[in-house]
Amino acid sequence: MTINTIMLLVVLAAFVLTIVAQFAVKGSFKKWAQVNASSGMTGRDVARRILDDNGLHDVPVEPVAGSLTDHYDPISRAVRLSEPVYYENSISAVSVAAHECGHAIQHKEAYGALVLRHKMFPVTNFASGIAPFLLLGGLLLGQLQLFGLGILLYSAAVAFQLVTLPVEFNASSRAKNIMVQMGIIRNLEERGVNRVLNAAALTYVAAALYALLELLRFVILFFSANDD
């Protein structure tokens, strides 16, 4: 078995992990969406309370269509929660709402990894759009320089995914601590919060691992072709 074949199998395994992670986060969210938080607060209530308590009175909390579409918009400076999170008072809802507020607090405090990710975004957005064409074109045409440029641009996208990891883990850590300190959840509810947030974090880890291994495969292909 050649090293290229081994790398392809490893990348495929990582890809399967990303699929499993997606199912895990959906399953975890669905399970704990059926368990109401003892505080009776909805995701919107939790987000508003956390933001106000951290001096972010000017950051709105807005509902957005879809499921698991929750996010913090750093440009508009708004916390947007999917309807199942915004209107419900489940463990899943309060966990996700607190996590997105964690990003808003990061923005306020100029958290290093978040600042870096924001600066990287324009370059990453361009690189991730053009890299696949350069990689494919380089392989089909046998142009190593073109393929090498594709690898370079793809590296920027991989770096962005790696920088995203501490941003997401930090937001989840903030969310857990804040909810406990503010009495939004009780000790018995921490298990559910951990399950929801850890499942979400797994999706980012799996995506970063897949991207990193794919990059390694491209690099091996490049040097193998160069040797030939």
From TrEMBL:
Is Membrane one of the keywords UniProt gives this record?
A: yes
Could you list this entry's UniProt keywords, alphabetically sorted. Answer: Membrane, Transmembrane, Transmembrane helix
- Segments passing through the bilayer: 6-25, 123-141, 147-169, 196-223
Q: Which Pfam families does UniProt cross-reference here? A: Zn_peptidase_2
Q: PANTHER family, per this entry? A: MEMBRANE PROTEASE YUGP-RELATED (PTHR36434:SF1)
Q: What is this protein called?
A: Zn-dependent protease
Lineage, highest ranks first: Bacteria, Bacillati, Bacillota, Bacilli, Bacillales
